[in-house]
Design goal:
The protein is 26% helix and 20% strand. It is α/β, with parallel strands linked by helices.
Amino acid sequence: MLDRVREAMFSTLGSGIEGARVLDLFAGTGSLGLEALSRGAAEALFVERDPRVVRLLGDNLRELGEEDRGRVRTGDALDPRSWRGLAEAPLVVFLDPPYPFLDDERRARVFAAIEALRTEWLAPGGRIVFHCPRRKVDAHHFAEGCAAHERVYGNSALWYIEPAGDAEGAPSPDEDPAGGDPIDDGDRAPEGGDA
């Protein structure tokens, strides 16, 4: 995820990170969960499949002195069995799958995981933040009744998804509650390339 997009995301989430339990799926080196911890999250669970990256993530937690608030699980980020390990239900879930996971073959698994997280795992008032390439996802991909709002930054899109029954609080698609960049509907090239 580009720095600009990450900053916009954390600005939008604002004080909602402080004291939150965070689930970082497809964690990679853990940049999202680590930033959440630096912004006052109570706890973060990082789920990553690649054992080499898991070792690096563990090193990052130790170097930053966050091993007491951050735990790493090696596993499939789309498997609910990998989501266990937080003291309470997560208030924030970061879902940043590698782009091949949005191909036709694997797309269904991504959206099934989003629906399970939304309806069964999120704490009341929580949010899933789903990062994907612009134009790869539309509102019709989400389950019926799912409140999902998109913010576009260059070639990246962030979808803010609410838990079941939570009809308020997600960013509107027409305004940026963080006061950050407006929605960019242009075809600008990404800054520095998408990751």
